[in-house]
Structure formats: C-alpha cells, structure tokens
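User: Round two. Same drill as before: sequence, then structure, for each protein.

Assistant: Same drill it is. First protein:
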Amino acid sequence: MQIWSQAKNMAEQTPAERDRYVDFLRSVSILVVIVGHWLIATAWYVDGSLTHGHLLKSEPQTQWLTWLFQVMPIFFIVGGYSNGVSLESARRKGTDYGGWLSARLNRLVAPLLVLIISWAVIGVIMGMFGVSPALIQYASQASLIPTWFLAIYIMVVILAPLTYRFWKKFGFLSFWAFVFVAILVDVAFFAADMQWLGWSNYFWVWLAVHHLGFAWRDDRFSSPPKLLFYSGVGLASLWLLISIGPYPFAMVGSPDEGLSNTLPPKITLLALGVFQFGLLLAIEGPMRKVLSSVRLWAATVLINSMIMTVYLWHITVMIVFVGLLFLADGFGLGVEPGTQSWWLSRIVWIGVLLALLLPVALILSPLERRSRNGDSAPPSPVKQIVGAMMLCLGIALLAMYGYGGGPVPNLDVISFVLVVVGAGVSGLLPNFGKRS
C-alpha cells in the first residue's frame, strides 16, 4: 500500500533526537479509547426493535475494564510533553504567542469542524426521511462525545505558555498547587454540596496531569525504581479514594446516575494519571529500543498521521454501521449483550469496525496535516483566544446535548454557530491550499 510505504519512508527519516515513545503512547492510547468505546456501547435487536445500552450499566461487573480503558490522563501527559517541546522550539525561533497558538490549534480544529458540520447535515437528512427527533439527538450526541476532550484540551493549550512558565519557575510546587485546588474543589463538591464548583476541575485536574508532561520533558525522572514507587503511590491513593472515600469504582462513563469520576473530573483521575505516568515512564528505556524497529515505528507514524480523524470519527462509524444492520433486519445484532456469545463476537465486531474506519481515516486525515498559509499573519492573540473560547463552548454543548437536545429551544443551532463563528474569529477555518 502506498500509505504504508510513505509511513516507512517517514519512519526511516526520523531525526535521532525525536522521542519515539511519546508518539507511541499517543497512538496506542487512541486505539485503546476506540476499542473501549466500541465495547461499552451495546445494541440488541429483538422482535423488530433495537435496544441501545451501556455495558457498564447492564453488566456492572465489567466496570473493572474502565481501569484499563481510561487513558485520557496519558493524552494530557503526552500533550504536556509535546507542548513543552513546541514552546521551547518557538522560543528558539523567535515565534510569538500568536504564531505559536495558531499553529498549535490549527490541526486540532480543522478535522473537528468537518465532524460538526457533517452531523449537522446528517441530522437534517435524517429529519427529511422522517427519523424521530429523539433518535437524531441520540445518534448525534453519541457521535460527538469524543469532542469533549478537544473542548478542554484547547483551553489547556491556550494556557500552556503560562503554565509552562509556572512550571519553569516553581517546578513540582506548581504541580502540587493544581492538585491542592482540585482536592479543595472535590471537598466542596462532596462536603458542601457545591456541585457547580466541581465543573472547574476540568481545569485543575487536567492542568495538573498536563504538568506531568512538562516534568517528563525536562527529564525530572530518571530512576525506574522511583517511578515504580510513584506509580504504586498513585494506585494506592486511587484505591483508598474508592474504597474509603465517596468515589465510584468505574473510571469511565457514568454508570451511577448521581456520581461519576469523569463528569465532572475528580481527583481519582489525578491518582490514575500518576499511576500510569510512573508505570509507563519506568519502561521508557526498553520501549525506546523496541521502537527502533522500522515496522513498529512506521505503524506508529501511520497512526499518528491520522490520529485526530480516527479519534473523532470512530463512534460515527459505529452509529452508521449499527443503523445499516438495523435496516437489514438486525443482522448481527441478535446476540444479548454480556453473554459468552456476545463477548466472543466482539472480536469480529471490532475487526469490522476497524476495517470501516480505515477508509474514512484515509479520506479525511489529509485535512489534519494541512497547515495555515504561511503568507498570512495569524489573528491577534486576543481574537484567537476569544474565538477559541466560543468554539469550545459550542463543542461542549454539542457533546452534552447533540443536535435537537438541550434545556432551551434551538440550543443546537446556537452551539453550531458558536463553533463555526469561533473558528472564524480565531482564524482556524481550514485552509485547503497547503499541506505541511
């Protein structure tokens, strides 16, 4: 395949100083997220009707799997490492904040806009064919769930120069400052019933985890035994928070209608992040040797070249596939979720979905490899920040309510406008004229 040959050529030309392990963790994490989502979303066709569900709710004994599939801390750790590298590079080149921010956000937003606009069109078409508004809302909201990550990550990127200076000046004291605020927010959430304040932990928890990436970038950890010790402390803290504290067991989703570790984030995700950070960095040396293999590194390069596309579109592919199976009299959906036969069928299920996702990724991924026109200056930092904040608000609302949902009429239209106008204000509308 031509794309594999291109990936091998890129792999062979990789500079020696590049940390391949960072890219490897990013690519493996995205695959773990995809498989996890494909597993926990269930669909069962019985007597001409389709019942959709959530494996963590219908089969509570499977919640231990979320300790394996909750890898968002790894994303933020890798993001912190990458942002640290890019900020140092920008400083050496004399690139100002506006130029750095524009380049950093461009590849995140372009593929995101395609998904948002595509689902707006799909929703209109479904309505024209008489599909119920409730089904349109469910399908769009489920498909747009992956976008919540970008809503918060974009804000973390905006703050990265400031938090990086914070890290450079105060070191681990800056990390513990975020941890301390996150703990206070959780105390207020549980002890004072200030649940509204808990939403601020989207910042404090993920900024703290992002800081671990800065620490990695600055090579503040070099002893595997110490890293394994820190990992053990993180795991022990996580277990205590769950067994003694008020936190639920599941690390993904909301199997408990009244409480979740992720909605909003809790300090359990911080403990999980420390556990993952220590464990993964402890094996960095051996993994770097493994990644000297051209084939493995080429596969890593290939996945990273389309990473945003496969992440954003993997649920949409599943939703469309389930819809087609439903129209085919429920072919393949007649096995009851959670049974032995259902688990055995997941091998085929995931294989088919991967096969369907690949052509979508090949078609759409070039968009995330396109850069801004070098001849045009980026908007001012103020415009970029204001536009990005509008965009993030629209993304968050669509991820929460989908098209057709929400507590107020036409919230989806307002959210869509916020995304598109925000992208325009911040100069993040796709430029189809140049590929990096």
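Second protein:
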Amino acid sequence: MFARGVWMNLLNPKAIVFLLAFIPGFVHTDRSLLGQYAVIAATIIVVDIVVMWFFFAVVARGFRRVSSGEHGQRILNRVCGVLFIAVGVLLAVA
C-alpha cells in the first residue's frame, strides 16, 4: 500500500503541475540548487505527514463514530451529497 501511494503521488499530474508552478518562486538561481530543493522537498514531506497522518487520523476517528451505524452513514452521505452539489453550483456560477 505504501509503495502504491508513493507511485500515485509521484505520477499525479495535478501535483506535478502545481509543484512546477509553485517551486520556482522559492528558488534562487544564484545559490546552491541542490540545497534549496532539499529544503523544499523536506518541507513538503513534513507538511504532508503532519496533515495526512495526524489531522486525518483525528478526523477519521470522528467519522468512524458517526458512520458506524446505518443512520450515521445515511446522514454522512446526505451531507457529502449536499456539499458536492453546492460545489457544482458554485463552479457553474463562477
């Protein structure tokens, strides 16, 4: 699972485009590029670990309590459905 996740993130076109657009603003060509890219990579990895592992682990516990029963799953499905519809309407309006 870990290797699959790594390959999925490395080959994700959205992430690649985002990083190609985002990183050059933080790189100074007059300094060592290897050191700068190492700092940027370490920062991205640390932030990803903090957000994905810690934040989503806490949120997952709450969702487990809500979605353990059939009634909770129905409520969760309706809330997510409403959110998707709202995002679709916002995109259509924008």
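The chain has one domain: 2-69.

User: Perfect.
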